[in-house]
Amino acid sequence: MRLFLLTALTMCAFAANSILNRMAVEGGDSDPAGFAVMRVLAGALMLAVLVLIRGGSLPLRSPRRFIGAGALSLYMIGFSIAYLTLDAGLGALILFGIVQITMFVATVVTGNSTTRQQLLGAAIALGGLAYVLWPSGTVQVDPVGAALMCAAGIGWAAYSLAGRSEPNALAGTAANFVIALPVTAGALLLLGGGWQMTGTGLLLSAISGAVTSGLGYALWYRVLPQLAPTVAAVVQLSVPVIAILGGVLLLSETAEARLLIGAALVLGGIALAVLQRQRG
User: Fold this and answer.
1) Count of the separate structural domains present in the chain
2) What are phi and psi of 87, to 5 degrees?
3) What residue numbers bound the domain in which 41 lies?
4) Cα separations (Å) of 8 from 91, 238, 241?
């Protein structure tokens, strides 16, 4: 039960990132690149301070940072630039679809078993997510944006897989953020154009970085060693659904039958995959 609650809390933190981003960017208080840079900066500061207060140190020179910080940078850069040309729903579908595929492939390559019930649960959850997020009308996909979102998905999958062997979740996450900051900032400011940020945008990005990203990612690294890669992949499909439901509650967005049906499919598929894991 404790693992379930911690995992659910982590997924809610990830979904909160989406809501905070939408509040800032769609509200005109920040551009995507500026929000992402401030998000990484706030996360790096929060986590570094917590590590130092606890008397620890940042493992900046650890070989783990090549994967951890590198994958985090790839995710942040690809995610932020891709959304300049992609529909929000389609972008989320590409991102989490690639995350799931990458983590399932990694499971097979490393010799870990994947059951038919886990595969069925993953397929149902992904189908439900597609049902919720697929844009209505004519779909036009920018190939560059799609490629960048695929790169972001691979980056996040690699970041998640790397977390399974991280010996210190808080210190490792802090070091990842610190190293990823100059890489992410340099790339986004170079490719993302000008900087536009109001006081509200700064506040929202700081909350996203310090709390729902920094602490949320540290919590994710803590629970990952207890989750099979396939389960870790499937549960993340709940994030867009939680974000949409959060938008209904917090942003006065409309809850349609399509959302409720898709959410039921996503949660049902997740339950199917996770319950199989618990029996095994």
Assistant:
1) 1
2) -60, 145
3) 2-279
4) 23, 9, 13
